[in-house]
Amino acid sequence: MCLERSPATSGDPEPFWCDLDRRGLRVCIVDVPQAPLLPLKNGMALQGWQVHDLFDRWTEPADLWRDLVNSHGLPPLSGENYGPQTVGSLLALRNQLLATALQGGEIACDLLSRGPFDFFVMVLGALHRGGHYLWDTSQIAMQTASRDEARRLDSALDEIYIATDRTVGRILERVPEKARVLLFALHGMQANGGWAERFELIAGALASVSMPTNRPTTLQWLRRFLPKTLLQRAIGSFPEGFGSRVLEFTSARMHDWPHTTWFALPSDLAGFVRLNVLGRESRGILNPGTETRAVEDWLFDAFSRLSDLDGRRIVDNIERTDDIVPADHPMRRLLPDLLLNWGAIKACETAGLRLGGDELVRWRPGQPNDSGRSGNHATEGWYSAMGPGTQAGFDGTLREIDGIVPLVYQWLGEKPPGQFDGKPIIA
Fold first, then answer.
1. Sorting pLDDT into bands at 50, 70 and 90, what band is 232?
2. Interatomic CA distance for residues 183 and 168, integer angstroms
3. How far, in Å, CA of 332 to CA of 69, rounded?
4. Which of 320, 342, 370 is the last residue of a domain?
């Protein structure tokens, strides 16, 4: 009954390239987010140079970082400035990301010259950060920008895409003529609706309707008066171990658990709702079966009826996890029970919400997103491939991301380990 900050790979199988390395293949891994530091016998790895999530910085071998800094200078990309933005902060980010894209090409060419490699993977991190903050200028006061500043901000994301495209071109010039190449984005970017950032506020207002005996805890009262970004930055500034303990301690006391039948989970896109089920949660109170289903049905109906003050629905559709994930799936116990997919209306274009005909919650009209992010993830990405076995053209078929690793093994003429059971995305 608490939040834990842990690496994405905690408890997961090791990255598949370690298996390739043990098979005697030479690999080079560059800036895969949250990849763990694991020894490689036949290759090298660079982590934290230009990734969006700057958690760890290391290289394998250890002296590779110093080597690259001596040749190319320090990484231009700093940690994420999560929170309200200004014209100046976005212009500074633009400059950082353009420099990052340019330096990324130099780093890639340097590493490729240390080959040959059987498998080379590089994440181009400038695009991710740029998509979040430079999608548009809706989150800053543009009236303070000069004409030249406005022009540079309007074209910033296009410039970063162009610079990254040139980096890709430089990399392709260095790979062997018959190399197979896969260029992909696991997800796309789109305008940030901002609802996930207000979901905690919305859920709190709805909880007062559905759980009248539930009393706000002291920490909930404090969160209402302290900026969300201030708390997030404060926890992020602590040493990792201490910050994790602070997060666990505070989140465990964020709810009046004996009277809490449901609660919102943090997210950055969809809205996640989890029920406090007896036997599943350590302090659960809802009996599985009829009682749990009744609460879930009430929430489904309530979220479906949410509208802004002008009567426009804000939830596009709601998915019940039990309808899309088998009950015996090993990850089912970790998932939310309801997933809310938001509609096209942006939160900053509204001034509050109604539940049916009754006003539920208000905020300042035009209030920007707490994160300062004008862009956010989309559910679908894209890929492009070249080399032996690939064909020109676009067939419009959607493919699952679990087919990428099997494709790598297929291209390398190897059989993937048992845990990778997807089908290669290219036949």
1. low
2. 9
3. 44
4. 370
